[in-house]
Amino acid sequence: MDEIEFDKQHIWHPYTSVINPDPVYEVVSAKGVHLQLADGRELIDGMSSWWTAIHGYNHPVLNQAIADQTQKMAHIMFGGLTHQPAIKLAKKLIDITCDNLQYVFFSDSGSVSVEVAIKMSLQYWVAQNQPEKNKLLTVNKGYHGDTFGAMAVCDPVSGMHGMFNHALPKHLFADAPECNTHNGNNSTNINSFHSLISQHHHELAAVILEPIVQNAGGMRFYCAEYLQQVRVLCDQFDVLLILDEIATGFGRTGTLFAYEHAHVQPDILTLGKALTGGYMTLAATLASKKVAKGISADGKGLLMHGPTFMANPLACSVANASIELLLSSNWKHTIATIEKQLSSELSPCKQLDVVADVRVKGAIGVVELKNAVNMPEIQAQFIKLGVWIRPFNKLVYLMPPYIINVDELSQLTSAIYQVLSRLPHYQES
Is residue 143 annotated as part of the catalytic site, yes or no? Predict the structure, then answer.
């Protein structure tokens, strides 16, 4: 049995069936924005490995950070111990985020950082002697992760976790934000949200939202005014605000963090994905002094979470190097340049009959189709054109590494147009 056949028969890939698994392609190396397949083909990566590899692959600075830390210690438990990479990273995260975020809790994945954020909000109200405030309010079309607490605040109807609804905690869902300046829709449709928070604030611990961009729930963009109104309502009704920047953090939308578009400050912030530049799994949940001190207000408030690999020294070291690499670059100009090219080169897709919408925000380019695609078939077409693009449902999108050059990005956008122009031949009925 060859290795790919073994993989097919024994390895469970994300969101796949073992009965009829999707095709997989073996990568043997990666450098810059290029993935080298075992069969010799080379692909330009348009996904940044699920939005993490903002500096591309095999970057010498990040490689060195890992190598240097390996000579000291690869891991040490964080219970009762600490280390310089974690201290440095916490300082850095506090420095680059908004002023009120002063406490950092490290974990090992984005989903877990959301779990920690939810725990923080629940424990906060227990410590305030208001344990009845134990529900969350969010919006439809959102996505916050695959673990159970995170699943409970993902879209309950169109999201990927609907089959678990019977087992999940029941939270409140407002209408998804509809305002979007790219299509001239400036109405914030805040009424649904306002109605729910005004009626249920006595049982609400927190609101959780992805700021400005709803990612895996539909790659939807919304206006800053909506987020501003949410912040005002959270303050008015005494509800904490959790912002999930796992996908949007570290420059992806054109600001270092997406909440900066709205000039608001969350009470709790979740970070992950690009935190380490795609090198290692690491996440962080940042909290305000109000939340952190509030959890301990009753004298019992130990934050009840402690992942085994939290603050892993290797991951913290490469995260420090990745953030320094980003901040030392002209990243704002880079993102603006990518945004301009994506807007120009994806625009012709609007003329295709199968396309419902084209939208761009920072280094995110989205082509939304009228019908869902047959993902394995359409992906095979992209590979023939030398690119790695992984659509889902009705969405064909790009989140390329920031180091991509003009020609490489053009190859990605050209491939999208070419494949979509032939799409009726491949599209599911």
Answer: yes
229-288 pLDDT tens trace:
999 999 999 999 999 999 999 999 999 999 999 999 999 999 999 999 999 999 999 999
Measured distance CA(17)–CA(27) in Å, rounded: 21
Joined tokens for residue 114:
């959301």
Instruction: Look up the CATH architecture of domain 3-58+330-425.
Output: Alpha-Beta Complex (3.90)
Q: Is 273 a catalytic residue?
A: yes
| φ, ψ of residue 31 in degrees (nearest 5) | -150, 135
Q: Which of 45, 244, 267, 357 is catalytic?
A: 244
Pick left, alpha or beta for residue 85 (phi over 0 → left; psi -120 to 50 → alpha; otherwise beta).
alpha
Question: What CA–CA distance (Å, rounded) separates 133 from 123?
Answer: 10
332 an active-site residue?
no
Least confident of 118-132, 168-182, 191-205: 168-182
Rounded Cα distance between 293 and 270, Å, is 18
List where CATH 3.90.1150.10 sits in the chain.
3-58+330-425
Residue with tokens 């590979």: 383
Residue of 57, 103, 124, 143 marked active site: 143
CATH 3.40.640.10, the chain: domain bounds: 72-327
Name residues whose C-beta falls within 8 Å of residue 40's C-beta, 6 or more positions apart in sequence: none
Catalytic residue among 45, 103, 133, 273: 273
CB 160 within 8 A of CB 15: yes
Q: Is 124 a catalytic residue?
A: no
Taking the domain 72-327, which CATH number applies?
Answer: 3.40.640.10
